[in-house]
Amino acid sequence: MKLKHWFSAGALLLGSLATLASCNADSGHHGNKLYQASKNEDAQSIIWIGDFNNFDDAVALMLIAKDPRYTLELAVVEDSFNTVAHGANTVYNILEWLGNNDTKVIRGAYFATEEVAYGANGKASITPVNDDKAVAGRDDYQLPNSSDFTTGTWNLERRNAMGINLYGQYVPGPWRDNGSTLYGTDHLIPRAKQAHYRYQGNNGVSFNFELAEDIILDTLDNLEKPPVVFNTGKLTTLARVLGKANEEQLDKIDRVIMMGGGFENYEPFTADHEAACFGDKSRNLGGNIFSHPSFGCDSDFSTHQEFNILLDPLSAQWAFDALSESNIETYLVPTNSTDMAKVQGSTIEALAKRRATPEACYTSQLLSSIREFEGGDFQGNGDFAMDAVIRLWDIIAALVLLEPETLEMDLVPGFIEVDQLNAGLADSMTPYDPITFDPTVGKTTITESGEGLEVNVVMGINHDAARTAMIERLRDGFNSARKGPRCRAKLH
């Protein structure tokens, strides 16, 4: 397949003329002045919609923040298995740390696409929900440092207002808890200091009672050059944007890159391939809901389903159809590409080698913490996470944007269909009960028939090249952080 011009656009030579930043670099003579990353004059804007709730989101954010060819115009934080507050603060801290100081951060849409589909013009049909403060009498700003277990201020279990969010049911408590502190390493990232980088609670549909899709559409109107829309969470907000946008606004979108879905009968999810599921490996058919050993993958229950699509399957179908019908160039990065892109022990060591940047040192410690956590809490040894669980989900999506040629992508064009709840379950009192839940809801398949432009499914990549690209970009001194954690002298 002939790839669009952006695949071969000037390869980024990170650090070729830059001074390498060491792990113990500090602000020094910079004083209180905020570090500002260098961006090209013609840098392309990115509108990023994601939950920013786990390690892969954080590392993907670092990779994109360092690249001078792109500037993050707007970060939209979706509900996920932890709070929007946590995701917003992850964005604030990492962006300011890496000198990206002009990004606007909002929360994603509360409501799914029914309001758009049934003519409500995107306006919420019920009273907006205000989340209570995590701790009475205290503002929600930063989650406590991961080392502070004594205050009782953990903010982990507040329910998402959409009512169809399944993360809380399907993600084990230890994973949710560790995701909220980036596996006990979030305190290693310097805290953002800018006045507008303060999350003051979950107010209404967005931080200021504005609809997320309206803010995105206003951003599109105000941008001179077409942006990339980058989606690494559920598709609720994106579907609402596409449902409300006029033709001129749709034409302003250069391309869409998203992480989500998984496809049966494509590698590695074929009957004769040892896929990622624990136990009978042939049973994991593209999903990742039960691909963790604590779920018991000796059953094929729910193994067709991937988190981002399952969280809001109606919005997913709406978004895929609208992208094709609007002829918007779209790249979908499914679990077929990410499930074999696993972290290795050598990855941790390579990130921490001499002359590493603060962000490389941090990522090395982050991955090391995941390794220790997985080895201690679940079956297997200390390398189990490296071999069977932890994948480079959103990191691969970021590299599809940054280094598509390096990844040697196998693109399969087609139209995407998403299995929906049947009428009985949708109308029942417990439509998402894990016992009665239909295990194919959210399953994605590729069809040859559809209207408009086919979606490019990134069905395979060069996994070794992806790991290498991640390591080299994080270690490169260009647009590196000026301060941060040192690399550990000895890795465990």
How would you describe this structure to a colleague?
The longest helix has 20 residues, at 358-377. This protein has helices at 55-66, 84-97, 114-117, 167-170, 173-180, 212-222, 236-244, 247-251, 307-310, 313-325, 335-338, 345-351, 358-377, 384-389, 393-402, 404-407, 423-426, 463-475, and strands at residues 44-50, 70-77, 104-107, 228-231, 255-259, 330-333, 410-418, 444-447, 455-460. It has one domain: Ribonucleoside hydrolase-like (Inosine-uridine Nucleoside N-ribohydrolase, Chain A, Alpha-Beta Complex). Helix 1 links the parallel strand 1 (44-50) and strand 2 (70-77). By secondary structure, it is of the alpha/beta class. The radius of gyration is 21 Å and the shape is globular.
Q: Quick recap of the structure?
A:
The protein has 492 residues and is of the alpha/beta class. Helix content is 31%, strand content 10%.
Question: How would the blueprint of this fold be written?
Answer:
Elements (H helix, E strand, L loop, with lengths): L43 E7 L4 H12 L3 E8 L6 H14 L6 E4 L6 H4 L49 H4 L2 H8 L31 H11 L5 E4 L4 H9 L2 H5 L3 E5 L47 H4 L2 H13 L4 E4 L1 H4 L6 H7 L6 H20 L6 H6 L3 H10 L1 H4 L2 E9 L4 H4 L17 E4 L7 E6 L2 H13 L17
Parallel strand pairs: 1-2, 1-4, 2-3, 4-5, 5-6, 6-9
Antiparallel strand pairs: 7-8, 7-9
Helix pairs in contact: 1-2, 1-15, 6-7, 7-10, 12-13
